Amino acid sequence: MIKLALPALLVAVQSWSFAHDIASPDKQVKVQFELSPRGEPTYAVARAGQPVLLTSRLGLQLQSADLTRSLRLASAGAVQRISEDYTLATGKRRSNHYEANERRFSLRDKQGRKLDIVFRVSNDGVAFRYETAGGTVRREATSFAFAPAARAWLQPMSVAQTGWANTNPSYEEYYQADIPVGTASPLPSGWVFPALFRSGDNWVALTEAGMDGSWHASRLQDKAPGGEYRIGGPSAPEVFPGGALMGSGAASPWRVLALGPLATVMQSTLGTDLAAPAIPFDAALVQPGHASWSWAILKDDATVFDVQKKFIDYAVQMKWDYTLVDADWDRKIGYDRMRELAQYAAGKGVGLLAWYNSSGSWNKTEYSPKGKLLTREARRAEFARLREMGIKGVKIDFFGGDGQSFIAYYVDILKDAAEAGLLVNFHGATLPRGWSRTYPNLMTAEAVRGFEFSTFEQDGQDKVVKHAAMLPFARNLFDPMDFTPMAFGDIPKIKRATRNGFELAEAVLFTSGIQHFAETPDGMATVPAYVQDLLRQLPRSWDDVRFVDGVPARYVVLARRAGDTWYVAGINAQDSAQEVSVELGAPGTLITDGAGEREFSQRAVAAGKQKITMQPHGGFVAVFKQ
Predict the structure, then answer these.
(1) How far apart are CA 22 and CA 40, in angstroms?
(2) Rounded CA gap, 159 and 548, in Å?
(3) Within 10 Å of residue 360's Cβ, how many Cβ atoms?
(4) DSSP secondary structure of 338-378
(5) Which residue, 455, 482, 479, 449, is CA-closest to 467?
(6) Strand residues in 376-513 grouped as ranges (E)
(7) Tens-place pLDDT, residues 142-166
């Protein structure tokens, strides 16, 4: 055994050992940052004295430098208070205030190359990012270490170049609910963001934000030995042709952890708080709304002039704002008749939206218009043509992955569409990661196994119940989601698994800048007038949200406010009834399931605490003014 004299031991320890705490403004959330004896940066997170994340890794390995070990502390900056206010047209809360304590740790390797790690700690979570002199990323050491007793709710990441016409990855898998931490993903690509965990009394939602096109999008790796989840990057095929796979910008995206009681996480806006401020865009063109859409149930054969004209009339009848014309409109309708449709719609106060295929050579899709957005010159010309035709926005489908060059492609599309005054909806796409704040013209994005999958096969319909009850807790937690909800009538060759109250509640529970409703005119004609009236009056955007009750993938109840009116909605994915207690601030109206699976009931409800029973696979919407 080697023994050191006490003074020599103190010198040895002092040469590497230090720890710095950063606390939230309310002092409840605390991050401890330190270097290991080998110069490896680490952090741990606690809330109210309880550990949330155990000691976890930090650092970047660049092609030119290994900034994961043998580092020294060059400086530890003073704590700075961050205070920002911003508005969102497409989120869970219109007016948002972000307050956090920020501290920068500047590290250097033996050659003097820098790695700065910037932490922000707010009352509802933690965020951090890396800043370097630049260089292509080879690997990120970041990890999130949970105690063995923690639980996880995670969606596997689909493997690139698999699925229909090689269109994966597109964030369209089912969630694994309430699994032990450390459970390996069934797919080697890992787990997507947002990733939800329960650690003791606290919940944690992991995501990232601040994607400017210089960096790849990340995920969690497929294996998490001992409950330590590591950041993973895109796979080799996930590149725009000729582009880069990994990031090389001077600043990484923010790694975001919303944490606390479930209500705190559900009401958090950290996913947009950490996004960049909005680019210039004509505020008059930022028009959230509701849309009629034929393809969800009627599929390809309905993309013809006469049917689309009927769906414009349907939007007028329902007082909705848009009609979406889906794939192959250029071949089945044509540009000239699309102009005619746009003019017809505009004359009735409805905006027309047009579908596009994003892809070049990276998948086998044949739907068109295809190949018209691949270069800035082509995009600008096409977008200018659409604006001249009177088209209000574009739905762009079939992206190819999360490599840096694909993230740059998304950003370039958003910028060029903004310049043309067009709204954007991404499909077959990555998670938006806060883009709805930075790009006000981004109305929504799919990045979810949406309603369409419940129309293809019975298995997809049977699984949609628990899947839908998971989405408010993860996929739709921070970013708008184009699930395209709501069917009251029959779906061809499919036995619906949900009751009508469940379907109606989705219209309130799911947030999307443009909510594309799947129901057809014939299906809408089967429901009572009071349901149709609710859907006519349903707000296009929300001022606030409150989490009322729920368990991920089992049931959820949220209250959303628009002006002085609250909409409380709940769904129950369980095979047995679920009673919930809802506090109404004033007398109102309750719409819920009737005696049959396809029936509704409506009744007046008094102010105060109300006990509402949700039927198996059922739901409700309550409305009151305060």
Answers:
(1) 19
(2) 36
(3) 16
(4) HHHHHHHHHHTT-EEEEEEE--SSSS----SSBSSSSSHHH
(5) 449
(6) 391-397, 423-426, 442-445
(7) 999 999 999 999 999 999 999 999 9
Looking up tokens 């003074």, which residue turns up? 7
Q: Amino acid identity of 215? A: W
DSSP H or E segment with residue 524: helix 521-524
Give the angle subtended at the CA of 310 by the CAs of 309 and 316, to the nearest 5°.
95
**Number of residues assigned to the chain:** 626
Burial of 38 (0-12, 13-18, 19+ CB in 10 A): exposed
Q: pTM of the predicted model, to two decimals?
A: 0.96
Q: Taking a C-beta distance cutoff of 8 angstroms, is the pair 593, 615 a contact?
A: yes
Alpha carbons 113 and 10: distance in angstroms, whole number: 28
CA distance 1 to 303: 80
Q: Please report which residue ranges of 517-559 form alpha helices under DSSP H.
A: 521-524, 529-537
Q: What is the DSSP letter of 133?
A: S
129, amino acid identity: R
Give backbone dihedrals phi and psi of 306, rounded to 5 degrees, phi first: -65, -40
> What is the spatial distance between Cα 524 and Cα 486, in angstroms, rounded to a whole number?
10
Report H helices in 233-375: 262-267, 270-273, 295-298, 305-317, 329-332, 335-347
Kindly report the CA angle at 515 between 513 and 521, in degrees rounded to 5? 155
- Per DSSP, the three-state class of 502 is helix
Q: Which of 124, 378, 140 is nearest to 246 (CA)?
A: 140
How many CB atoms are closer than 10 A to CB 307? 16
Mind giving me the DSSP string for 465-481? HHHHHHGGGTTTTTS--
Question: Which is nearest to 121 in space by CA: 147, 101, 151?
Answer: 101
Going by C-alpha positions, the residue among 163, 167, 161, 134 that lies closest to residue 67 is 134
- pLDDT, tens digit, 9 for 90 and up, residues 403-430: 999 999 999 999 999 999 999 999 999 9
- Tell me the torsion sign for CA atoms 444, 448, 451, 457: positive
Q: Please give the backbone phi and psi of residue 509, each rounded to the nearest 5 degrees, phi first.
A: -65, -40
To the nearest whole number, what is the mean pLDDT of the chain? 96
Contact predicate 418/399, CB 8 Å: no
Backbone angles phi, psi at 108, to 5 degrees: -135, 145
Provide the pLDDT confidence category of residue 533 given band limits of 50, 70 and 90.
very high
With a CB cutoff of 8 Å and minimum separation 6, the contacts of 372 are 356, 378, 379, 382
Task: Estimate to the nearest angstrom the gap between the alpha carbon of 249 and the chain centroid.
Answer: 23
Residue 290 has pLDDT above 80, yes or no: yes
| Beta strands in 358-472, from DSSP E residues, in sequence order | 391-397, 423-426, 442-445
Contact 189, 159 (CB under 8 A): yes
Residue 194: is the preceding peptide bond cis (ω within 30°)? yes
Cα separation, 508 vs 62, in Å, equals 45
